[in-house]
Structure formats: structure tokens, C-alpha cells
């Protein structure tokens, strides 16, 4: 079995720590590096110190040092951090698994451009369950294309900085595509005051932030006399970490290209 040399970005973050633990536990992976931005807590310390079992890998703020032995970088940080890592990885042929959310169009275009130089899996949600839920939404949207109002409701922990979640936006895009609509035109992201009646072609979004909610997503298809709710609820971040490792395995034989979790899980078609 070939061992994957994986580095983790945002090493001290909620996902960074879970990813380090998952890499340490995987039979086919080795923690080959850990990076975080200058000034972040934990720089200069062992990346797995929080597990009580040092990995012999120091968290570096210098990418050349932190990524020296890495074939893969798993990055769940912030758009500005990911874009910096992206440029380095593209230049040095390091494959990337990107879970960061909140990119603008220019950021997404930069990821697509970097995928001409290295292989990338980019997804707002690495859990198997969420990606299967996306397929269900596609089917439901096609079957309920008239007479049902579509609303996406998401809830996350109080520390989350972007809204709506990347997953909620992706759900909206999947539904809009299935209905031949453009989310940029039909997405409604806020309602207040006298809003007028609901536009039947709109897809609405509502965001809840509180406590330690890991990640809940529900899509309502609300008709007259009935409503359908398709929900996914995460109770652990481990599912995201396992999905990210699966994405690394998928990239093993890909020199370049931009992929998503549908590709990794063979859910296309
Ligand atoms: N695709 C998926 O399946 C999932 C995606 N996510 C996404 O992953 C991202 C991280 O989430 P989470 O772990 O909860 O967030 P955290 O804030 O806990 O972790 C982010 C980490 O990145 C670091 N960081 C912040 N800014 C930069 C920067 N400019 N350059 C490099 N590193 C930086 C933070 O350092 P510091 O602590 O100093 O700020 C921290 O270590 C979010 O975008 C979230 O939406 C989360 C879960 C699943
Ligand atoms: O910030 C989080 O925690 C999560 N972010 C992702 C998103 O924005 O969709 C995925 C998951 O919901 C957890």
C-alpha cells in the first residue's frame, strides 16, 4: 500500500485538529506537514500535541517549510488563506483538497485556474450523507417543479463566519440547475418588512447560528396542502475528515483537474 503524505492547513482550527487526528489514524496516510497563518496559536509546536501523542511535525507559518514533504494539502481555513496555499501548491505540484467555504467568483476562478497545474477536489461538504442528499434534492426538484415553494434552511455553530453555508448555497445551485433556473437570479437571501407575496420562481435561504450545532440543512418543498422536508444533520466533524481523506485517495492517480465530491463518490449521472 502506498502511503499518502498529507499536510494540514489551519492546523489549530476545529477542522484542522479533526483532520490531523484522522490522518494519524489512517493506515494509508502520514502526517507530512502542518501550516497555519503567522500569529495563529500553535505555530512552532507539535501539530498533534493536543492529542497527547506528538506527531513529530511542527506547525509552520512558512509554506516552504510546512509543505516540504507533502504530496497533498487538505485545507479547511478561510478563502484568503486557501488562495495563498493554492498558488504555492499549483507551483509545486501538491494536490489539494479544499473544504473552505465563502469564496467569491474570483476565488472560485482562481481554483479552476490552479487545477490546470495540479489536481484539486473542491467541495463545500465532504460528508457522504450530504452529497447523497444533494442527489435526492435534484430528483425532488424535478418532480416538484411547479406548485411547490423551495426554501433552504441551515443551522450552524456560533463561530461560523460565512452565511449562508457553502452547503446551503450548493443545495440551491443543484435545485436551480435541475429546474433550469439561475440561482444568481432566483436566490432570495433576506426578507424584512413588507416584502410582497412570494415569487414562485424564487429559492429562499434562512440562516440560524447558535451554540455548537455542527451543521444542519433542510430543504422545504412547500405546496398547498402538503410540504416535503429533506434534511441532513451532522453530529460530528469526523465525517468531513473521512470524506477529505477519501478525496486524497481519489486524487492519487490524477495529475491535474478540478473535481468535487460527486466525482469522488461516483454520484455523477
Ligand atoms: N467542506 C466541508 O466539508 C466543511 C467545510 N468547513 C469549512 O472549513 C472552514 C474552516 O472551518 P473551521 O475549522 O470550523 O474554522 P476554524 O476557524 O476553527 O479554523 C480555521 C483555521 O484556519 C486558520 N486561518 C484563519 N485565517 C487564515 C488565513 N488567512 N490563512 C491561513 N489560515 C487561516 C485559523 O486560524 P485562527 O484560529 O488563528 O483564526 C484556524 O486555524 C470554513 O470555511 C468552514 O465553512 C467546515 C467543515 C466542513
Ligand atoms: O463551518 C462549518 O462548520 C461548516 N461549513 C460547511 C459549509 O459552509 O457548508 C460545511 C458544514 O456544514 C460545516
Account of the protein in words:
- This protein is an alpha/beta fold.
- It has two domains: 4-122 and 237-264, Rossmann fold; 128-234, Dihydrodipicolinate Reductase, domain 2 (2-Layer Sandwich).
- 34% of the residues lie in helices and 23% in strands.
- The chain contains nine helices and twelve strands.
- It has helices at 14-25, 63-66, 79-92, 105-114, 128-143, 166-178, 183-186, 238-251, 261-264, and strands at 4-9, 29-35, 59-60, 72-75, 95-98, 119-122, 149-156, 187-188, 203-209, 215-222, 227-234, 257-259.
- The protein has a seven-stranded parallel sheet with strand order 3-2-1-4-5-6-12, sandwiched between helices.
- Helix 1 crosses helix 8 and helix 3 (79-92) runs parallel beside helix 4 (105-114).
- The longest helix is centred in the middle third of the chain and has 16 residues, at 128-143.
Summarize the SSE layout with pairings.
Blueprint: E1 4-9, H1 14-25, E2 29-35, E3 59-60, H2 63-66, E4 72-75, H3 79-92, E5 95-98, H4 105-114, E6 119-122, H5 128-143, E7 149-156, H6 166-178, H7 183-186, E8 187-188, E9 203-209, E10 215-222, E11 227-234, H8 238-251, E12 257-259, H9 261-264
Parallel strand pairs: 1-2, 1-4, 2-3, 4-5, 5-6, 6-12, 7-9, 8-9
Antiparallel strand pairs: 7-10, 10-11
Helix pairs in contact: 1-8, 3-4, 5-6
The site of the ligand O=C(O)C1=N[C@H](C(=O)O)C[C@H](O)C1 has 9 residues, from helix 6.
